[in-house]
């Protein structure tokens, strides 16, 4: 035995390895699954329908796979099957019914792999005609009838309906094709009954045809309800009524009888065999009395209407006047329009007011003098005669509050020439209130305020400032004297006019470095917003709001860049923009610059004049000197040395003497003007006279001392005389010219080689 166990364990160990079962894995693939409805998706009742589920599976082995099929209808499983064959799954629906209609699907599962087909809809048309059966066709009043309605051959969920003529009397919901109803008929005679049904196929329903009608005959029972009222006629308010409710022809059945006596919706009394009730007759809207008998399912009724003559009509309460103010007296009248004079005297009918707490004064029956309260109050008139009391409808007295003195004001701003609104308003006063706008004491317009938040607004226009004070308003909410408001007091805004831009300093006096003031002024009501602009710049240079009609904009340290055209704009609460004319500002050079430029110009002009004069004199002196030498030659008296005196214009100023070859002879001296003839003396020149003197210097005898020089030396002395004949030693100098000329033998007879020139010594 032990050997057998050992062999068994060895075999098992060869089959199992490490706790796992060694199985051959098969490969398969569910390619597709389809569901088809045969013979067609739409069929009629009693057709044999087949649902075919076809799966397409590929596998690697020869052994058949285990397949599980499921059929679904509207999401619910209706059939399942396990098979190892690859044949199609067929699900038959024999003699299809409407209940078989719906959406179907097919699902296949193989080793935890599954696939579901698409949905196919089956529609089955046609329902069988229902059959109605009753247990009795003749019954007595109140007897029960059992009716059975059947839907032959149908399945599913049903609603059955039972009808009496065309009126539905019962409804039953069942899951079988048959329903039963218990019917009771409320009246005697013949009653036709039929039925029908509806099959529910979610989410739709299908209704059948109606069954054939069945007639039920209901016989009346002899039992009746009897209603009696005394007196039967000429009943007045206040009369006593006796009412009796009883049973007649009681069949002495085992079922109990119940009686109910009622007037309208009010139950007066109830009992078993006889019911009675006593009451005072009142003239109300005609209402019937009813005696009701109930015995099982039997219902019997008897009704009667009672006509009651009114002893006096319902009083009415009125007030006079229709509108009353607080603490004012008013009159309340209470009256019944009609009364039964054959039964009632006028003195028997009395009137009172309810409530009676308020102070009342009544001198005539039904007439009350009442002082209005400070708040709303309700009054009711009570008329009474022979224990009959009638109340009038409630009269609500709403005392009016006298309107207070109105206040007049403006809405917004008042601008001359523009429309604006005037508001008239009283702090207290009952609505409606009529507000009248007055100009002076002339009526302009009337506005009625009917709602609590409504305002009395008037649209007007003024053309002068003083016109605003002529407006007043009047308030009235009754016949009393209307209070008058004060005169309207409001600021009138005058639109701006005549904008002027003034410049300080004056335009010709504006120079660089100055402070410029642009003063903008207007006529109109402040506050005014001023803006200054420069042409070419869209943004203002300066903006200010002031309560004055003019203000200024200061530009400091002017320069040439400030030159241009300027203007100003102004606006006030009238919202009318005004603009000044353009002002052209040219910034001139500063005074010190002008002086500096003028000084430079004068200096340049002076230098130019001096240069021109010197050039002119230089040329003229040369011409006169040439002419003098040719007419009046001047020679020295001896051959001694030549002494030359120089003025301050010479190179050596105030020198004593100049010696030539050691000689001490002075050749510079004043000379008297030559005598002129009368014609020449009469013409006095403003220029100094110039005289040229020729001085001949003898050449030294020793040729070794002086280098030989060709020609003769000629020295000219220029003598300038003042215009008045005296020599002017301050303004002019004495100049000596020396000319060395070797080509005039008449002047210099020495050979050229002995003539010489030497620099003049300066002491």
Automatic annotation (TrEMBL):
The keyword Membrane applies. InterPro entries: Ig-like_dom, Ig-like_dom_sf, Ig-like_fold, Ig_Fc_receptor, Ig_sub, Ig_sub2, IL-40-like_Ig. Residues 754-763 have a biased composition (Basic and acidic residues). The keyword rRNA processing does not apply. GO terms for biological process: cell surface receptor signaling pathway; cell-cell adhesion via plasma-membrane adhesion molecules; immune response. PANTHER family: IMMUNOGLOBULIN FC RECEPTOR (PTHR11481), PLATELET ENDOTHELIAL CELL ADHESION MOLECULE-LIKE ISOFORM X1 (PTHR11481:SF125). This is Platelet endothelial cell adhesion molecule isoform X2.
């Amino acid at each position: 035995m032990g050997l057998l166990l050992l062999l068994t364990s060895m075999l098992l160990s060869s089959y199992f390895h490490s706790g796992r079962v060694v199985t051959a894995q098969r490969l398969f693939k569910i390619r597709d699954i389809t569901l088809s409805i045969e013979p067609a998706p739409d069929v009629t009742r009693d057709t044999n329908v087949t649902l075919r589920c076809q799966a397409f599976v590929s596998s690697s082995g020869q052994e058949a796979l285990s397949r599980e099929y499921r059929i679904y209808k509207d999401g619910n499983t209706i059939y399942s099957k396990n098979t190892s064959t690859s044949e199609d799954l067929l699900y038959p629906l024999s003699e299809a019914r409407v209940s078989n209609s719906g959406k179907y699907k097919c699902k296949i599962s193989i080793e935890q792999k599954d696939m579901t087909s698409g949905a196919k809809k089956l529609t089955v048309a046609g329902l069988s005609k229902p059959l109605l059966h009753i247990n009795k066709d003749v019954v007595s009043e109140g007897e029960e009838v059992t009716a059975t309605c059947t839907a032959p051959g149908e399945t599913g969920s049903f609603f059955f309906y039972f009808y009496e003529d065309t009126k539905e009397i019962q409804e039953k919901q069942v899951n079988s094709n048959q329903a039963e109803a218990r019917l009771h008929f409320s009246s005697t005679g013949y009653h036709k009954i039929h039925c029908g049904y509806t099959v529910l196929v979610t989410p739709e329903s299908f209704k059948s045809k109606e069954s054939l009608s069945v007639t039920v005959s209901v016989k009346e029972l002899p039992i009746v309800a009897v209603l009696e009222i005394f007196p039967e006629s000429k009943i007045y308010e206040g009369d006593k009524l006796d009412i009796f409710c009883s049973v007649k022809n009681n069949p002495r059945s085992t079922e109990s009888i119940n009686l109910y006596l009622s007037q309208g919706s009010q139950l007066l009394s109830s009992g078993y065999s006889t019911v009675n009730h006593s009451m005072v007759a009142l003239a109300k809207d005609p209402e019937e009395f009813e005696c009701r008998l109930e015995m099982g399912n039997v219902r019997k009724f008897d009704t009667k209407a009672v006509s009651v003559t009114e002893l006096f009509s319902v009083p009415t309460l009125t007030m006079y006047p229709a509108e009353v103010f607080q603490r004012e007296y008013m009159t309340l009248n209470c009256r019944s329009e009609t009364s039964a004079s054959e039964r009632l005297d006028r003195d028997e009918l009395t009137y009172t007011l309810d409530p009676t707490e308020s102070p009342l004064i009544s001198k005539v029956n039904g007439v009350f003098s009442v002082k209005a309260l400070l708040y709303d109050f309700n009054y009711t008139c009570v008329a009474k005669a022979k224990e009959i009391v009638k109340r009038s409808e409630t009269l609500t007295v709403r005392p009016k509050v006298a309107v207070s003195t109105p206040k007049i004001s403006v809405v917004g701003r008042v601008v001359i020439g523009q429309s604006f609104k005037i508001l008239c308003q009283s702090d207290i006063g009952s609505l409606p209130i009529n507000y009248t706008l007055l100009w002076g004491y002339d009526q302009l317009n009337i506005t009625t305020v009917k709602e609590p938040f409504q305002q009395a607004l008037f649209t007007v226009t003024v053309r002068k400032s003083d016109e605003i004070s002529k407006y007043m308003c009047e308030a009235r909410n009754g016949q009393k004297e209307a209070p008058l408001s004060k005169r309207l007091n409001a600021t009138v805004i005058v639109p701006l006019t005549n904008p002027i831009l003034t410049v300080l300093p004056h335009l010709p006096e504006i120079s660089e470095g100055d402070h410029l003031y642009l003063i903008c002024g207007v006529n109109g009501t402040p506050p005014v917003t001023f803006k200054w602009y420069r042409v070419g710049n869209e943004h203002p240079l300066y903006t200010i709001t002031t309560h004055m009609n003019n203000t200024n904009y200061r530009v400091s340290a002017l320069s040439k860049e400030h030159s241009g055209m300027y203007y100003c704009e102004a606006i006030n609460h009238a919202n009318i923009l005004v603009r000044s004319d353009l002002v052209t500002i040219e910034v001139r050079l500063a005074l010190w610059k002008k002086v500096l430029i003028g000084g430079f110009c004068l200096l340049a002009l002076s230098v130019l004049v001096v240069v021109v004069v010197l050039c002119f004199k230089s040329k003229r002196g040369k011409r006169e000197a040439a002419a003098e030498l040719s007419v009046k030659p001047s020679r020295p008296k001896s051959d001694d040395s030549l002494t030359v005196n120089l003025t301050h214009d010479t190179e050596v100023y105030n020198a004593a003497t100049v010696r030539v070859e050691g000689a001490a002879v002075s050749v510079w001296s004043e000379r008297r003007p030559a005598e002129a003839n009368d014609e020449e003396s009469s013409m006095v020149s403003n220029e100094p006279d110039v005289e040229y003197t020729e001085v001949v210097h003898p050449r030294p005898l020793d040729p070794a001392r002086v280098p030989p020089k060709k020609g003769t030396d000629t020295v000219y002395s220029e003598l300038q005389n003042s215009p008045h004949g005296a020599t002017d030693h301050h303004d002019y100098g004495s100049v000596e010219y020396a000319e060395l000329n070797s080509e005039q033998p008449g002047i210099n007879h020495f050979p050229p080689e002995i003539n010489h020139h030497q620099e003049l010594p300066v002491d």
